[in-house]
Design goal:
mainly alpha
Length: 59
């Protein structure tokens, strides 16, 4: 039993998954921040593209 507990304490296989989860969360926060800050500009670009596509279809 003591050997099992020592092995369990030394086991760090779940540590990598936790690190990846933290990195993924940080990336998601950065992406959401960029979208929040540039949302109006991104929307304007898509509206311009949509408008130009509508003009091509009408011709």
């Amino acid at each position: 039993m003591l050997r099992f507990l020592k092995k369990l304490i030394k086991d760090d296989s779940g540590q990598t998954m936790a690190e990846y989860a933290l990195i993924l969360a940080a990336i998601a926060i950065v992406v959401l921040g960029v979208i929040f800050l540039l949302g109006d500009e991104i929307s304007a670009v898509f509206n311009k593209i949509t408008g130009e596509m509508g003009e091509v279809v009408e011709e």
